[in-house]
Specification:
- This protein has 2 domains: about 20-85, no CATH class; about 100-345, Alpha-Beta Barrel (TIM Barrel), CATH 3.20.20.
- It contains 13 helices and 11 strands.
- It has helices spanning about 20-30, 60-75, 85-105, 145-155, 155-175, 190-195, 200-210, 220-225, 230-240, 275, 285-300, 310-320, 335-345, and strands spanning about 45-50, 80, 110-120, 125-135, 140, 185, 215-220, 245-250, 270, 305, 325.
- The N and C termini lie far apart (about 60 Å).
Length: about 350
């Protein structure tokens, strides 16, 4: 069917379970003894569809095999799956959601919420992270986890990113009338980092809102930065030279070499919530990790934000370690701009 995609039609009177054939095919692709060192390790994801009354043509049969194949890929590859009514229904729902997502930006279905980032010593709000939601006409308000992975798969993430950047800058310009020093942070997808027009998008949004460049922070995941090319690093350096701040999000989860910190023009690190959440249990390794990241940031002259702070004990731990800023339900949940303004006006966080 393609360069790396094949169809196998099993026909005849003998009722041989197709799963047995799938197991034989997977076994046949395994390297023979001595071949492991050659560096070539073929594998397959196999989707099985059995002909039935629901198949009006061979196209329907291939479609179901395709659905099952993607389920096998999601299971970790080198596996097989059989198409079921549940898998078919899930695939149809996914296709419908993608079609709806293509209209979401143009039809004004996206909305913004903001989560405060506070000064751990005073409780005052120092920044707010912009978080996108989707007000789906049928399913209600969807969180990013429900639709951003689909947006990344389909390339729609770039259009969503652009909308978020412009809306966040406009919101920040509004709240800086109440709190002139409070900044806004926006997440940037890996696919957007690779686009040459990223600089024009960011500078255009800042200029249109009348926002000082230093009031905008772009949050980039560690894995996206590690995979970035020299062109990506050059793009980030240009943005940094213009005054835009660069944060490395979910720091500590990328399994990376520390050497890349010398190359990325970052201004702050955000300690991943997976480490902060374990501080409640007195996890000495988690405490040591957060402490190490805080010291590392100090050596690189980077600000630090502890993410996912939810309890009094976690707040006490990250404060004792020396983190200067925190983010999480302890200080405020994501909220609309109108709900955030009182905190920006001086209410701060309840310590």
């Amino acid at each position: 069917l393609g360069g790396d995609e094949f169809a196998v039609l099993v026909a005849g009177d003998r009722a041989v379970p197709p799963e047995r054939l799938a197991i034989r095919l997977l076994a046949a692709l395994e390297p023979l003894p001595g071949e492991e060192d050659l560096g070539v390790h073929p594998s397959a994801s196999i989707g099985i569809a059995e002909y039935g009354p629901q198949h009006a043509s061979h196209t329907d049969l291939l479609r179901d095999a395709d659905i099952a194949m993607y389920a096998a890929k999601a299971a970790g590859k080198a596996a097989y799956r059989t198409c079921t009514p549940q898998l078919r229904e899930s695939a149809v729902s996914r296709a419908e959601l993608i079609a709806d997502l293509r209209r979401a930006v143009d039809e004004g279905q996206l909305l913004m919420e903001f989560q405060p980032i506070v000064d751990l010593d005073t409780g005052a709000v120092r920044s707010a992270e912009a978080l996108v939601r989707w007000r789906h006409p049928r399913l209600g308000v969807l969180t990013p986890a429900r639709f951003l992975p689909l947006a990344e798969e389909t390339g729609l993430i770039v259009a969503i990113d652009r909308w978020v950047i412009h809306e966040a800058c406009r919101a920040a310009a509004t709240w800086r009338a109440h709190a002139p020093e409070v900044t806004v942070a926006v997440n940037i997808a890996a696919a957007h980092l690779c686009r040459p027009d990223l600089i024009a998008t960011v500078t255009g949004a800042v200029a249109a809102a009348g926002l000082p460049p230093r009031a905008l922070t772009l949050e980039l995941t560690e894995s996206a930065l590690i995979e970035g090319s020299e062109a990506v690093l050059d793009r980030l350096s240009q943005l940094r030279d213009l005054g835009i701040r660069i944060a490395i999000d979910d720091f500590g989860t990328g399994y990376s070499s520390l050497s890349y910190l010398h190359r990325i023009p970052a201004t702050e690190l955000k300690i991943d919530r997976s480490f902060v959440s374990r501080l409640d249990a007195g996890d000495s390794r988690a405490y040591a990790t957060v402490e190490m990241v805080n010291r590392l940031a100090g050596a690189f002259d980077l600000a630090v934000v502890a993410e996912g702070v939810e309890t009094v004990a976690q707040h006490a731990a990250v404060t004792a370690i020396g983190c200067r800023q925190g983010q999480g339900w302890r200080y405020g949940r994501p909220a609309a701009l109108t709900d955030l303004l009182p905190a920006l006006s001086g209410a701060g966080a309840d310590r």
